[in-house]
């Protein structure tokens, strides 16, 4: 009798455990890549992560991620593939995201473009600094998809419309309209951007190329 009672007790406990497991909600997880740089929200100084489910980082479509991820540390210049736990928040439409694991990290070579560069050659010809005029400079901001700087006379601005591992395209390049004694270099500098399709990075040197691999603009990194 005692033996049967014990067996019944064990069976009851096992049944309860199965019932608890069966009633426990299955943990929801998501896996995606986080881009190496953030993007701005409405062109202000608020930044959001960019994420993609594609493993083809070269041609991935990146979406803004409007939530925070508890426990996640963003690393500028690195793609990070992460797994997160996703939970509903009672009474809210938003969800809670918590980092479970960083599955993979990859250095993003594009991130080195995110700097200020001074021109040393245009169309293969060395550029010399003229008296009372600066050398043209280009500053790239990948998060905003914008460029700024100077053509040596006027302030410049424009957009980066495409950037991949070896290709880059600019659009809507413009400048202020101040006249300077030497406009040959500023005009050549600004005209060159329409031809740019590719780029090469060699240590502290950036070379922008046309579709036939001809050198269009050569820069060195500003110290």
Walk me through what this model shows:
The protein is mainly beta and 223 residues long. The protein has 2 domains: 25-107; 111-221, Beta Barrel (Lipocalin), CATH 2.40.128.270. The protein is built from 2 helices and 16 strands. It has helices at residues 2-23, 184-192, and strands spanning 28-34, 39-40, 47-52, 63-65, 69-70, 78-88, 95-107, 116-122, 125-126, 137-141, 146-150, 155-163, 168-175, 198-202, 205-209, 215-221. Strands 8, 9, 10, 11, 12, 13, 14, 15 and 16 form a 9-stranded antiparallel β-sheet that branches. The radius of gyration is 27 Å and the shape is elongated. The chain starts with a helix and ends with a strand. The model has no long low-confidence stretch (mean pLDDT 90). Residues 114-220 form the DUF306 domain. Pfam families: DUF4377, META. Keywords: Signal, Stress response.
Main attributes of the structure:
single chain; 223 residues; mainly beta; Lipocalin; 9-stranded antiparallel sheet; 7-stranded mixed sheet; 16 strands
């Amino acid at each position: 009798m005692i033996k049967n009672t014990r067996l019944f007790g064990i069976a009851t406990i096992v049944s309860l455990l199965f019932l608890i497991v069966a009633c426990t909600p299955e943990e929801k997880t998501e896996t995606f890549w986080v881009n190496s740089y953030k993007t701005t929200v409405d062109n202000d100084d608020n930044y959001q992560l960019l994420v993609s489910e594609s493993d083809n980082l070269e041609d991935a479509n990146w979406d803004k991620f409007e939530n925070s991820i508890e426990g996640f540390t963003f690393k500028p210049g690195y793609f990070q593939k992460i797994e997160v736990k996703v939970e509903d928040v009672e009474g809210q439409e938003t969800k809670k995201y918590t980092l479970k694991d960083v599955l993979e990290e990859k250095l993003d070579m594009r991130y080195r473009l995110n700097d200020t560069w001074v021109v040393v050659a245009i169309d293969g010809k060395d550029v010399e600094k003229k008296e009372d005029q600066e050398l043209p400079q280009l500053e790239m901001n990948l998060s905003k998809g914008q460029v700024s700087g100077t053509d040596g006379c006027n302030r410049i601005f424009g957009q980066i419309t495409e950037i991949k591992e070896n290709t880059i395209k600019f659009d809507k390049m413009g400048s202020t309209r101040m006249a300077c004694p030497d406009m040959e270099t500023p005009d050549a500098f600004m005209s060159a951007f329409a031809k740019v399709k590719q780029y090469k990075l060699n240590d502290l040197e950036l070379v922008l190329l046309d579709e036939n691999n001809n050198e269009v603009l050569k820069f060195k990194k500003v110290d």
